[in-house]
Amino acid sequence: xxxxxxxxxxxxxxxxxxxxxxxxxxxxxxxxxxxxxxxxxxxxxxxxxxxxxxxxxxxxxxxxxxxxxxxxxxxxxxxxxxxxxxxxxxxxxxxxxxxxxxxxxxxxxxxxxxxxxxxxxxxxxxxxxxxxxxxxxxxxxxxxxxxxxxxxxxxxxxxxxxxxxxxxxxxxxxxxxxxxxxxxxxxxxxxxxxxxxxxxxxxxxxxxxxxxxxxxxxxxxxxxxxxxxxxxxxxxxxxxxxxxxxxxxxxxxxxxxxxxxxxxxxxxxxxxxxxxxxxxxxxxxxxxxxxxxxxxxxxxxxxxxxxxxxxxxxxxxxxxxxxxxxxxxxxxx
Amino acid sequence: xxxxxxxxxxxxxxxxxxxxxxxxxxxxxxxxxxxxxxxxxxxxxxxxxxxxxxxxxxxxxxxxxxxxxxxxxxxxxxxxxxxxxxxxxxxxxxx
Amino acid sequence: xxxxxxxxxxxxxxxxxxxxxxxxxxxxxxxxxxxxxxxxxxxxxxxxxxxxxxxxxxxxxxxxxxxxxxxxxxxxxxxxxxxxxxxxxxxxxx
Amino acid sequence: xxxxxxxxxxxxxxxxxxxxxxxxxxxxxxxxxxxxxxxxxxxxxxxxxxxxxxxxxxxxxxxxxxxxxxxxxxxxxxxxxxxxxxxxxxxxxxxxxxxxxxxxxxxxxxxxxxxxxxxxxxxxxxxxxxxxxxxxxxxxxxxxxxxxxxxxxxxxxxxxxxxxxxxxxxxxxxxxxxxxxxxxxxxxxxxxxxxxxxxxxxxxxxxxxxxxxxxxxxxxxxxxxxxxxxxxxxxxxxxxxxxxxxxxxxxxxxxxxxxxxxxxxxxxxxxxxxxxxxxxxxxxxxxxxxxxxxxxxxxxxxxxxxxxxxxxxxxxxxxxxxxxxxxxxxxxxxxxxxxxxxxxxxxxxxxxxxxxxxxxxxxxxxxxxxxxxxxxxxxxxxxxxxxxxxxxxxxxxxxxxxxxxxxxxxxxxxxxxxxxxxxxxxxxxxxxxxxxxxxxxxxxxxxxxxxxxxxxxxxxxxxxxxxxxxxxxxxxxx
Lengths: 333, 95, 94, 478
What we know:
- The complex is a heterotetramer.
- Chain A contains 13 helices and no strands.
- Chain A is mainly alpha-helical.
- In chain A, helix 1 packs antiparallel against helix 2 (30-50), helix 2 runs antiparallel to helix 3 and helix 9 (170-190) packs antiparallel against helix 12 (261-284).
- Chain A is globular, with a radius of gyration of 23 Å.
- In chain D, helix 4 packs antiparallel against helix 5 (126-144), helix 11 (264-287) packs antiparallel against helix 12 (291-315) and helix 12 (291-315) runs antiparallel to helix 17 (409-432).
- A two-stranded antiparallel ribbon of chain D has the order 1-2.
- Chain D is an all-alpha fold.
- Chain D has a domain at 263-478.
- Chain D is built from 19 helices and 2 strands.
């Protein structure tokens, strides 16, 4: 594609993104906001692909637009009226709970505050753009990207993004799995899962019966291919979770998660647990934490990613269920 | 500096500030959470833009990895926030 | 010659897309909108992909495109059915 | 020996997973982890004092390509304080949640919080800091909402949204840094950063994000409800450690990495906001009707004192006077951490025993719970800053720095704040010592009362009388 065509595409994408973002944020109805947000995520996927970030594009499609969208849609679906209610109304219920502090919700109604904050945001936008243009036009040294490619051979994988995620900056990824675990434990502490959906009719069942195996196959492929091409544990885990979400929507019970509490705990913990175990094993072998021997690195990374995929998928499905699984079987609502 | 840097960098900044404004001013809890996600997307866009090195050069993989981490962290936080909202509305219905 | 055929196919695909979008915006109720959207877009996508496959002249690439088309067909017909069914259930409840 | 650094993160994380898998043995796992991590923190403190700055390169990659953990005097001291507070609070929590079914939900999140605190204090990488901030924020929110009713959930939700906004602003700053300097490593950054639009706007974004999480006035609105409605051990840790962790980052950025970039005008902003926080927080604490809210507002005020140091440290030239002021700042932060956690634990006992924490109805508490009342009195001494508490030393050096920098305005603020702190402490004690003949054993619930007492005593006597090593340790800096 020549430069003019590319420019045309860029302008089109940017305009679509900006107007979708604006429409998402200014929609008066929460449901409309959610749908626009999903559309925004899908267009964003194109932009990432255009900027040569296919790993991110995959993740955005599966997690950013896909699962976040499903979570948000489920939230408006189950509380259509309340989800729309403002925080101001909610705090109104707490009139007996006397708060000495000035409530920011009261302030928000004032026009002056609205305008001050808007002007502040405009100013911030200018400052951001100014600083960013300064940064982009200054000739920054490319040392980090160079040292990534210089060390790629020792990392055990040939996809540089996977190398950064699971080798050079593996510690970030370990903590990120801990973040996922924290979120799901917080969700467990808060509530039980929602009641299920109606059992699906024949058409939907037909779709499910070939879509779910296809998604599982695709997850396995994404996991394996992540070593040398776009893909990896997060995209694969999100794809598996999507299969779970579809099963859930079709009214299937248990959606592939174990019923026993201790098996479920193992599935949730295995991602961060195995990662940590590999790291500590290196320590026991007299190497630094998470310093894989180059000959083993490829296998260890695949092992870690497989465990991570399982935990990620389980976490995302449980987030969609909205709480710890009930002991009783689902009754449809 | 490439044209793509201009276009996408600028829109990243704008999307982030749009999001910030909505986080500060929107009344609906759900829409605030969406706004936080949009704001995050703006930041991710800036990161992906600075990773871009032109159509023929390999992009810097580090920002890509950072954005992947950021996306997962964002979905975790969104899930927790949505469950909190749900639990809150249940409690209020019980009151 | 092949390029002309490819271009014609793609262009006609785009026309179908245009019709589908106009239908989505202009038609009065949900069922007719669904009708316009899924029928016209599925055909439009098929033509567009056929054009692209011809343009590239690569068998593996063409196979991938066909796979994409089939996946979209299945997904869009199933989801159109589900949307319509949901809407009909809402209507009869009322 | 250098593995101490990674074990400080890995052990709490491993135990968090273990408590999730084996809830039956959770208490034993937590207590042994707490003891081991405290010993680890002490070992790190010793190592920093004897060998200087500690560095650990994860995965064996050089910092920049990989992520490095670093510890200097400041981070080692804060890690030690976190370990002491968390060890005491863990013992307390094992009694507090004794037969509560929430226990099995509580322990894994508690250890994840500890893991994130240690990871944050040790991290030497900007993006890794963002991940630790999110881990800290999510675990803190999950703990604060534990078993809560409407008010607690509402507070937790607002806490979560504010936290997410804060970390997103922080991440925006990190992005600008990477765009401008091509590095995320803190040590490299402090060498290459230069005054200019990139550094200024990145610092501004990161600081606003962190101040939102540190609850500096006027960004403190979320703190009193969140800290006031969480379970007692959680409140203790939120007030003593979680806001301190983000404060530590502000300190690290302003006084260390960006110290060349910060101008006197910029440094006076946190000073002014800190002054407002001291006055507003103390005043609200004086007016609070519930003990927990009083403690939470007192946290707002005490954080204000810490920010008063910023313009002074900026104005003082490097040398003995600045080092002394720096030590004062750290010792004030440490004292507040210990005292406030002791206070929240003690309040938790009162709340459990009498079913409420309304200050007006505290009469007779001194007779019923003498050890607890003593703990409140001791932490009160530390909050006011009376000798021999560590806060006395801290404020002394704050005043000295204000005099030598010729910035007299801060002196007035410190005086008023101290008077208000005295007023709200004596208001509580006045009610607690109200006449009601009801003599009992001095200590009634050992596992809950001893931790509170020890923390408060540490704040008042330990840090005050044996604070000298703090200055020694702070000489070891990155």
